[in-house]
Task: inverse folding
């Protein structure tokens, strides 16, 4: 296993304008390849600071990956800083200039003179063509440690990294990973349940909470495949009510992907009727390629009037029960299924906060209803005042998707274990109670 350190360069990474994401991608690639990302350092556009960061990054590393600062503007000084580090001068590369002019020719416009900065490289470096962008990359060596210098643009970074990393890193013993995603259970509770099953030597377990999911990863050397499979089966069994399904290759699905897979399997389509989630359910479903196979229509009925006019929810019912109620959620779901051309419908109404709650229906009170054929299920969530508006909306969205998927699987009662569920019951069409 080789240790790789990373240096990401650019003022925009430190002043709130841009989030650094290349380290996230690189860490995942290295993990799958049997290596490890040891550190990610963010550095402003300052030559001396870049040189100092690169010196530190080479300590104990088999490779240093550098991201950013290869553009044509005056603040793109990565090439200059690395030349300083190596004691090199910058030299123009004829092949790089030829490729750059050809790219601008394909763009149908003349190349500005300042783009010629992108054809300068430290004299001792090896130029690496960039097949998808204007900034060619390069590989340099400092005190025996290779530096792979890539653009900051994620698509360009990933494209060139995939080509160069296998050449720069030693072959590593392959590892096998079993990754599962959970929803509706906290990280500490999840870990407690898994830790009751002894983990054999040589296996590695990690938990990663990213609201509203917690992901579990179990890994081992490929030679320990039998032990990995046996342990995963035993350790994941106590998590059954919270585990999301996997695809045919064993990859963990999101709640939305699991719903679409279940809909396709049964030849059904879904409609969504949302209030407090503001279209979050429809967004999660339609972000997935091919979702038109299972998604029919979605409406955001935020006002009481829209609930009545678009979904047919009786105004008298809203007045009697309140917009945030199991009766209105059920009526919304049935109205969506009847009016929006779908066999399945899910509806959400609630108080996402931070204001708008009452003693009877405090912030975090949410009702989810799913209508299928002549009956449906309605679920009440009590998510508490401590959660933010965003967290309440995200949790409600995932809970709604989970109720749909579990209902299609014939096990909706498993949602009783979902964190924050106060009640869950079946109702007959038209009763709204």
Result:
């Amino acid at each position: 296993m080789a240790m790789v350190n990373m240096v990401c360069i650019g003022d925009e990474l430190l002043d709130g304008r841009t989030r650094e994401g290349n380290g996230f991608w690189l860490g995942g690639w290295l993990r799958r390849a049997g290596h490890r990302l040891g550190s990610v350092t963010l550095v402003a556009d300052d030559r001396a600071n870049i040189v100092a960061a690169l010196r530190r990054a080479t300590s104990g590393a088999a490779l240093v990956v550098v991201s950013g600062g290869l553009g044509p503007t005056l603040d793109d000084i990565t090439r200059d800083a690395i030349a300083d580090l190596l004691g090199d001068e910058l030299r123009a590369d004829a092949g790089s200039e030829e490729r750059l002019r050809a790219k601008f020719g394909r763009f149908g416009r003349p190349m500005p003179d300042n783009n010629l900065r992108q054809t300068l490289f430290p004299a001792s470096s090896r130029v690496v063509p960039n097949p998808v962008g204007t900034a060619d990359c390069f590989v340099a060596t400092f005190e025996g440690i290779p530096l792979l210098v890539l653009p900051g643009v994620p698509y360009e970074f990933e494209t060139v990294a995939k080509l160069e990393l296998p050449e720069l890193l030693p072959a590593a013993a392959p590892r096998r990973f079993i990754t599962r995603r959970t929803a509706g259970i906290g990280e500490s509770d999840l870990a407690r349940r898994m830790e009751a099953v002894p983990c054999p030597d040589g296996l590695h377990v990690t938990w990663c909470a990213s609201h509203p999911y917690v992901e579990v990863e179990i890994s081992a050397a490929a030679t320990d495949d039998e032990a990995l499979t046996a342990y995963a089966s035993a350790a994941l069994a106590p998590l059954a009510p919270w585990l999301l399904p996997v695809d045919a290759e064993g990859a963990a699905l999101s709640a939305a992907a699991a719903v679409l897979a279940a809909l396709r399997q049964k030849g059904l389509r879904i409609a969504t009727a949302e209030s407090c989630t503001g279209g979050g359910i429809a967004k999660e479903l339609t972000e997935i390629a091919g979702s038109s196979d299972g998604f029919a229509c979605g409406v955001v009925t935020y006002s009481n009037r829209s609930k009545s006019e678009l979904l047919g929810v009786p105004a008298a019912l809203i007045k009697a029960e309140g917009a945030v109620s199991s009766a209105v959620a059920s009526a919304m779901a049935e109205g969506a299924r009847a009016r929006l051309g779908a066999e399945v419908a899910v509806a959400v109404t609630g108080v996402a906060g931070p204001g708008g709650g009452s003693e009877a229906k405090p912030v975090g009170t949410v009702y989810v209803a799913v209508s299928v054929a002549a009956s449906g299920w309605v679920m009440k969530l009590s998510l508490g005042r401590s959660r933010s508006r965003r967290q309440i909306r995200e949790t409600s969205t995932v809970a709604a998707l989970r109720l749909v998927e579990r209902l299609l699987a014939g096990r909706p009662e498993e949602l009783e274990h979902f964190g924050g569920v106060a009640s869950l019951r079946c109702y007959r069409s038209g009763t709204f109670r």
Summary: The chain is about 35% helix and 25% strand.
